[in-house]
Amino acid sequence: MGVEGKERNRDLESGAHVISGNMGKTIQRLRKAYNLSLSELAEQSGVAKSIISQIERNETNPTLATIWRLSQALDVSIERVLASGDEEPFIEKSSKADTPILVSEDGKMRLAIIGWLKTIEWLQWYDVQSEPGGVLDSDSHQRGSVECLSVLEGEFEVEVGGVVQQAKAGESLRYRCDRPHSVRCIGDRPGRATMVCILKAAVMD
């Protein structure tokens, strides 16, 4: 290897050290967002549990192959895992392929998770698209949690505790979601809305 090659190798190695400080936090945040234990991520990625633990604690610099296996298991791009640190200007772009999709049991309603993974434990927001008649039934969230459904197209109704309220395009519904609740797309047209869920909110009277 020539001098230029050696210098380039040193640059890559030093870059890996810079990246790893933020990468461990990113891997841990993604793992927790998907409710995966270290053992489950190890099984899905083929990376040893001890290695993942060391990565999350920033005690090792993983190889590119290891980072790739973890990104595949976490269903995100390798660029996202290697996202830059907080000291650089913050502009984060998520591609369509990086956006997880939730589907209702009837298969008619799709929720794209467009919220930030850093806030997923207390703030979540979704792009909701539904065929006519689509229903999303949800269990109770943490006590005091509140959800807001802002309708962009079509018409939706929300049912909580036997109370039903409807909203058309340009209208919003805010409701307690710390009890079973349902969201339905009513009428004969497809619907679209933005849903924001605030978890662990102040307990409402």
UniProtKB/TrEMBL annotation:
It comes from the Bacteria. The keyword Transcription applies. Pfam families: Cupin_2, HTH_3. Gene3D superfamilies: Jelly Rolls (2.60.120.10), lambda repressor-like DNA-binding domains (1.10.260.40). Keywords: DNA-binding, Transcription, Transcription regulation. SUPFAM superfamilies: lambda repressor-like DNA-binding domains (SSF47413), RmlC-like cupins (SSF51182). InterPro entries: Cro/C1-type_HTH, Cupin_2, Lambda_DNA-bd_dom_sf, RmlC-like_jellyroll, RmlC_Cupin_sf, TransReg_Diox_bact_type. Residues 27-81 form the HTH cro/C1-type domain. This is Helix-turn-helix domain-containing protein. It comes from Microvirga arsenatis.
